[in-house]
Write a structure and sequence with these properties.
This is FAD dependent oxidoreductase domain-containing protein. By secondary structure, the chain is of the alpha/beta class. It is built from 10 helices and 15 strands. The structure holds flavin-adenine dinucleotide (FAD).
């Protein structure tokens, strides 16, 4: 029977653990999730999952076929969870998105993939103080996810399926898992987010330079909005920062989160007050429904970016401090898409685990 260690208590590690338990229940003797931080911990800025929006709005380009597959599978499952699992912290919402007419339409609009897709009228574009000669809008059904509620839901599913969840001290290098576990696991799943490159610096030195943070800045408001809004290309007069956009996602329990920023390689933990004022001003201008909104919290978070996109694959590392080989399936560097591609990525992890176990994966009947 296999003994598996999943490193990471964020959405990537938890979803990977759950899918592995569902796929390989006859093969897995023991599956342990190991992490320094778990849902409910807010002290570590490099633990990204608590800070997400989070919604589904695929960022995959037309040429990124694998990423599109991940996002497609996850869209379907998140919508199912919203319908079936009241405790999951996921709720369906309509999203109104506004794009430059000159920009390439997202794949899910071109393919008509998303539910309830329709183009918004020019009047609606105008009513949002956007120029209909430059901007067009679309509406479709997506989800809002409360990250802490959802990740706690995943933990309860893992424990129900027989998995173990254990807090550990920060590892310095990935092979320290052997000491923590007291044996060489049959398989390690590496979901260490923005720290993954550093953990691999001895065994896979190129990775350290590939992983980088993408800073986000968020305001939380008490007021509700019955739909989500994304304005990707803000009018020039609206944005002091080139990395600024607007997204407003109502949360399942009420209130909204308001972003945003996507600043590559910015690891400063400070909240920029000027940017906060700008985000609020821009929100009030384009969403008059929220013109009297009250901000009750603001924060920054760091998306785990990686040159070349997420790394999902199998590596065999010769151990130097022990005799043997560490088999590692990686799942890190997903950037701003950790929730919206979580099940697709986790099913790929299962495919690589199958290689390691020489066993065929089956799609779980119920996730
Ligand atoms: C502002 C903002 C908005 C976002 N909005 C969305 C959205 O709308 N939709 C979406 O899909 N995504 C969104 N994201 C992105 C999403 O949050 C991330 O992609 C996702 O959380 C990454 O999860 P992860 O599990 O890979 O990493 P993390 O959540 O960072 O988890 C890493 C885990 O590894 C553990 N770990 C790391 N290093 C060590 C070590 N050395 N020793 C022991 N344990 C370690 C940590 O304790 C943690 O448990 C957003 C992110 C931000 C910041």
């Amino acid at each position: 029977m296999s003994k598996i260690a999943v490193l990471g208590g964020g959405v990537s590690g938890l979803t990977s653990a759950l899918c592995l338990l569902a796929q390989f229940k006859d093969t897995i003797g023991e599956l342990t999730v190991l992490a320094s931080e778990y849902p409910g911990d807010y002290h570590a800025p490099d633990y990204t999952s608590p800070w997400a929006g989070a919604n589904w709005y695929s960022l995959a380009k037309d040429s990124e076929h694998l990423q599109i597959q991940r996002d497609k599978l996850t869209y379907t499952l998140l919508l199912q969870l919203a319908d079936r699992e009241q405790n999951s912290g996921i709720k369906k919402f309509h999203l109104k998105t506004f794009l430059q007419k000159s920009s390439i339409l997202p794949w899910f609009v071109k393919e008509g993939f998303v539910e309830g897709l329709k183009e918004l009228s020019e009047e609606e574009v105008k009513s949002r103080k956007l120029d209909p000669s430059q901007i067009r809008g679309f509406e479709f059904v997506t989800v809002s996810i409360n990250p802490t509620r959802y990740n706690n839901y995943l933990i309860s599913q893992i424990i129900n399926a027989g998995g173990i969840v254990r807090r550990i001290k920060r590892l310095d290098t990935i092979d320290q898992i052997v000491e923590v576990m007291g044996h060489i696991p049959s398989l390690v799943v590496n979901c260490a987010g923005v720290n993954a490159g550093k953990l691999l610096r001895e065994m896979d030195p190129d990775e350290q330079g590939k992983v980088y943070p993408v800073k986000g800045q968020i305001l939380q408001i008490y007021e509700d909005l019955p739909f989500q809004v994304i304005i990707e290309d803000l009018p020039e007069e609206d944005k002091p920062s080139p990395d600024q956009f607007l997204n407003v996602f109502p949360r399942p329990e009420g209130g909204c989160i308001v972003g945003g920023l996507a600043a590559k390689n910015d690891y400063s933990k400070d909240i920029d007050p000027e940017l906060s004022s700008s985000i609020l001003r821009v929100m009030k201008k384009h969403i008059p429904e929220l013109s009297t909104a009250t901000v009750y919290n603001s924060y920054v978070g760091f998306r785990p970016g990686r040159e070349g996109g997420v790394r999902i694959g199998l590596s065999d590392y010769s151990l130097t401090r022990h005799i043997g080989v560490l088999k590692v399936v990686h799942n890190y560097g997903i950037g701003g898409s950790g929730y919206q591609s979580s099940y697709g990525s986790a099913m790929e992890v299962c495919g690589y685990a199958e290689k390691a176990f020489s066993q065929r994966p089956r799609c779980p009947a119920r996730l």
